[in-house]
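Run: sequence + pyridoxal-5'-phosphate -> complex structure.
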Amino acid sequence: MKYISTRGQAPVLGFGDVLLAGLAADGGLYVPDRWPVLSAEALSGQPGRGDYADLAAEVMWPFVDGAYTRGRFDELVQDAYTGFGHPDVVPMVELGDGLWLMELFHGPTFAFKDVALQLVGRLFDEELARRGERVTIVGATSGDTGSAAIEAVSDRENIQIVILHPYGRVSDIQRRQMTTVDSANVHNVAIEGTFDDCQDLVKAMFADPAFRADHHLSAVNSINWARVMAQTVYYVAAATRFDQKAVSFSVPTGNFGNVLAGHVARQMGLAVNRLIVASNRNDILTQFFTTGSMAVSEVHPTLSPSMDIQVSSNLERLLFELLDRDGRRTAELLDGFRATGRMQIDHRLATQIKRGWSGLKADDAETTATIADVYGETGMIIDPHTAVGLAAARRSRGELEGPVVAMATAHPAKFGDAVEAAIGKRPPMPPALAEAVRRPEHCVRLPGDLVAVKAHVARCSAVSSA
Ligand SMILES: *Cc1c(COP(=O)(O)O)cnc(C)c1O
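>> structure
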């Protein structure tokens, strides 16, 4: 399988190069040069021994064929999903009236990013070992993604990871999920500043070519193709349970990575009816899917912070498809968007999108009401991100044929305050989470000063050659 850039100007690469590159050299995102068709085994929902890892290896194999032997790939995939706290990895719960929840939060950090990152960390390490290379992953986090990245690569031999978070500005549990990981290759830094300061420091380090090369800087952000690939699997797992009756999915969305994976599964031949893009008050995608145009505004903090995003980077992959895979037109559209903060696609495309997609939003009041309703009706406690998706699913239910699966993206215990405000009590902590966050913390505190942070990253990257 070969990969091409959405902007048409970067070299065509194989899977291993795409995995390590992240962003393409022309600023675009890598996508496969054609969509493989799901095999009969994958569509049976239960290839091999019938567990999630077997299905995952079968669905993903065409994307990585040529980069691994099948036996080694199967091993890496099996290993990635052994750390999940549920035998089904991504279990489904029926809510009644044709509505289901798919729980994507049984991984080590109790949020859906583990499903992809647990595999991607292993694929990274394997590719680096094969090349005899090492990298230093550097990232900034406002709380949620840092821990998933740390868990994904802790104790991997060829990787050091340095994660900056704003000192005193992430929740206690989010900080502890990162700082209690006791691995020689994990380096937490609390920056005296805001999340934006952290992100600016990371950008400045990547923008320094000598520093970047000397310390082999790398990233595992949400535009990485391998993350999208790993997420297509649970759409197949869900739809095949319904015997190929067209299933709709409602997905709480930030960077558009999760729901894009549903589109990939559909391109591979899965019977997907509607993909519902669910947003919070930051509703730029709702504008796009209802009107075909969108305009950037400021980011508003909400009860679902992992979705507090204005520019959803993975949307570029869908735009590329809509523009018949024309890299030049995709680049033009995105350059215009960057320059003006506005984008409009033509009327024909806007109408075409509505056949397979809808965009809905739920504000904080509806999020809270949904958490309370579900608790009142079923006794189940859901987190605020899940509630946004479920609110959109419920509002769409009447107009859709077939089952609707809402993606549950975080364990409610990670967002105890929002849950308590909705139902008057805190969700129980899963024992593994309670136990993990009680361990000693490892973190250094630094001023928001580029020279100091670079010196620290240089020391951390040197650990790998020790
Ligand atoms: C990251 C995240 C999302 C948004 O996922 P995208 O792939 O960025 O659309 C939703 N919910 C939770 C809990 C997340 O951590």
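>> summary
Residues 113-131 form the longest helix (19 residues). Residues 255 and 312 are 4 Å apart (CA to CA).
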